[in-house]
């Protein structure tokens, strides 16, 4: 029962295409599972892009219901990509991870207690074959990583992208279209994080990154006509201002 609570869906993958439920108010595209007015199928690759990296995405249950979630689109764009809906990774969730692959990484920034290696510092001989990503709000993602590290720490290396807690977070991508504010600079959507990581890991990484970002930009462009731009979060701005003052006083 405990395992069922931790993980209740293992269905989003590039090897399956399930029909989305239809509603009387807004029809849903059966392929991309997005409402018809923001259907992204015209931007998706005719066939999923072939990659050698195996990707496992732990998708928080709340995020799985969010209309701007990029994980379902990722599983349509890439081969070897599977999403698991749950709050932590543990033995029994994934046959691939249960093999304790020696060249696995999980993507999350450093903390004082859990340092991470910068992606750019990985050497060629250390190129990972398995990429683990957490898709959730910043708060939930930290909880998911903390709950999963006892399991992942046995075989996977923690890796991070460049980020700066003193910078104000931007949008889903660098643009004037601000649909979802991030807590600080360098925090990006799951699709962006995967794109930037594959740029380093895959032989044709730059082309893969460009393709994924192109899909993401179109997704945001379509959604922008139905959403109002979001303003910076007051609490985060207050916290960032306080840090800036402290840094200035300390220098």
Topology of this structure?
Blueprint: H1 2-6, E1 7-13, E2 54-59, H2 61-64, H3 71-77, E3 81-86, H4 95-98, E4 104-107, E5 117-118, E6 130-135, H5 138-152, E7 156-160, H6 190-201, H7 205-224, H8 234-250
Parallel strand pairs: 2-3, 2-6, 4-6, 4-7, 5-7
Antiparallel strand pairs: 1-3
Characterise the protein shown here.
Helices cover 33% and strands 14% of the residues. It is an alpha/beta fold and 251 residues long. It has helices at 2-6, 61-64, 71-77, 95-98, 138-152, 190-201, 205-224, 234-250; strands at residues 7-13, 54-59, 81-86, 104-107, 117-118, 130-135, 156-160. It is globular.
Number of helices: 8
Major sheet size, sense and barrel closure: 7 strands, mixed
Report, as a whole number of angstroms, the end-to-end distance. 54 Å
What's the count of strands?
Answer: 7
Tell me the Rg in angstroms.
18 Å
Envelope shape: globular
Quick overview of this protein structure:
This protein is α/β, with parallel strands linked by helices.
Features:
globular, 251 residues, 7-stranded mixed beta sheet, alpha/beta
